[in-house]
# Entry
Amino acid sequence: MKYDIAAFDFDGTLADTMPWFNSILNTVADKYGFRKIDLSERENLRHREASEILKFLGIPLWKLPAIMSHVRTLMQDIDPSVHLFDGIPEVLARLKADGLRLAVISSNSIENVQRVLGPDVAALFDDYECGTDLFGKAAKIDRLMRRHEVAPERFLLVGDEMRDIDAARKAGVHVGSVAWGYNHVDALRERGPNEIFLTVDDLPAILT
# Structure
C-alpha cells in the first residue's frame, strides 16, 4: 500500500453536490447581495481558485462564514437529492477491505456528511474532521496525523479543488485530485498533485 490513510473531501469528491449547489446559488446571492452567474460563467469558474471566485462574485471575506453556514443549513433539507457519485460506496468498501484507513475532511457538518453517506458507508470511515475551522483544512490534516500516528508521506488527501492541493502542501502530506468535482481537471493538473484520479475506478487501481 502506498499510503496508510486516505482522507477524502466530501463535496465534489464523494458526493455530487455541484448540481444542488448550482441550483441554490442565485437564491443565496439574492439573500447576501453578491453577483448572480449564468451557465457559461459557472463552467469558467471551474478553472479558478477559491479566492478568484470570491472576487468574481463580489463576496467579501467577512461575509463568507455566514454564507457557508446558510448553505450548510439548506443542505439539511436536500436529502435525498444529493447522492454519492456512482461507484463510490463499492470503491470505499474495497479500499477498506484492502487495509487502507479512511477519513473524511470537510467544512460541511458531520451531520450532513453522514446523512448523505448513509449508515453503511459512514461506518467504513475510521475518523471524521468536519465543520468550519479557523485554521482551515491543513489543521484538520495535522489532527488526523497525530491521532492516527501517520507519517506525512503515508497520508493522502483526496479532493476536487485547488485549495485541497494547497492545504495538503501546507500540511506536508501527499494529495490526489479527482476529475469529477468542482475544479476542472486541467486546472488541478497544473497544480501538480501527487495523484490524479480520472474515474472513480482509478482510486483502488492507484491506491492499492
Notes: DSSP finds ten helices and six strands in the chain. Strands lie at 5-8, 101-106, 127-130, 155-159, 174-178, 195-197.
